[in-house]
Amino acid sequence: MIEIKERDFANFFAAPFHAYGTDTPYVSPMKADLQRFLSTKNPMFPDATRYTYFTALRGGQPVGRITAHLHQASNDLHHEARGCFGFFDCVDDGETAEALLVAAENWARNMGMTRLTGNFNLTAMQQAGVMTDGFNHAPYTDQIWGPRHLPKLLEANGYIRHFPMTTFELRLDSHPAPKVLSDSQRAHC
């Protein structure tokens, strides 16, 4: 049986470590940073009504998590009623994924939203999206990594891909790009 807890930061932070295990390349946001992001210290949230977060527990163990939040300025600018979800991390289990997504959907609906979009980790300057390829590459700090089952769980719950993004690495030490580095900068590589 899945238990959903709201605003339980300790289990929210621990969920991906339990969901993915220690042999994955998952890189967590720093605990203090994540705690600050999910508080009214975050300038996106003038008060605690604009966001929440949920953790899924099975047998008392955190096995998934998700945030639900509003970007009111974006909604006003684009004449939308859209809520967002983020930090979707989950074991490969349809029941757990559905429980988390339903919690986020219900929260957004209760806030008057007609759509829910994600994975959008709070702002455009933070992690966004769900990995769909490149699983053999290790992520860097503040870069999304998720297992192959996440996009499948989202699709099974009616979510569709709609904004493809690409992450790439450019080795400046062995292939400096002339448009990126000046001659004096390249001389120091």
Name the descriptors.
single chain; 189 residues; alpha+beta; 5-stranded mixed beta sheet; 29% helix
General description of the model:
By secondary structure, the protein is α+β, with helices and mostly antiparallel strands. Helices cover 29% and strands 19% of the residues. It has 6 helices and 5 strands, in the order βααββαβαβαα. It has helices at residues 9-20, 31-37, 72-78, 94-110, 149-156, 183-186, and strands at 2-6, 51-58, 61-70, 82-90, 115-118. Strands 1-2-3-4-5 form a 5-stranded mixed beta sheet. Strand 2 (51-58) and strand 3 form a beta hairpin. The termini are far apart.
Topology as H/E string?
Answer: EHHEEHEHEHH
* Sheet with most strands: strand arrangement: 1-2-3-4-5
**Net shape:** globular
- The number of distinct β-strands equals 5
Sequence stretches where pLDDT stays below 50 over 5 or more residues: none
* Range of strand content: 15-25%
Rg (C-alpha, Å): 18 Å
Sheet with the most strands, sense and barrel status: 5 strands, mixed
Helix content: 25-40%
Distance between the termini: 55 Å
Number of helices: 6
Average pLDDT, to the nearest integer? Answer: 88
